[in-house]
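Response regulator structure dump, as promised
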Amino acid sequence: MSRGLGVPRLSTTKVQLVARIIIADDDEIMGQIACDALVAHGHGAGLVGDGTDALRVVKAKRPDLLVLDCNMPGLSGVLVLRELRNTIGLADLPVMMLTGRRGAKDEELAMFAGADDYMRKPFDPEEFVFRVEELLTKHKARAAVR
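structure tokens r here:
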């Protein structure tokens, strides 16, 4: 019996962008679901529980993307976002709002403050990862043009 040489197959899956992502959410269960979904797709993810910690960690660690809840102790997600958009070196950090707020006005406020995406809880982990990776891809493309 002869054995042929293995021919490599071309993958049709999307190339994974391995990124460092901070999730700021005071709902530990939702935050952990988001972290686990990102880690399962090869990303590094860390969870903080309030807006003040989110700002501190983002300034210290300089992640590739930030996921923010709107309602958190300390600073709200929108206040964190406004601060980041006014901080040199962090103004263009991709930010996704992941929140239980369902109103159109809440989404408008977050987008006006500078959010790049807005996703409502409860969320599908696969859709969440897809949208995070879309933001990372767009951010990388914008950075390449500069």
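Residues 20-145 form a domain with the Rossmann fold fold (CATH 3.40.50.2300).
lmk if u need the other ones
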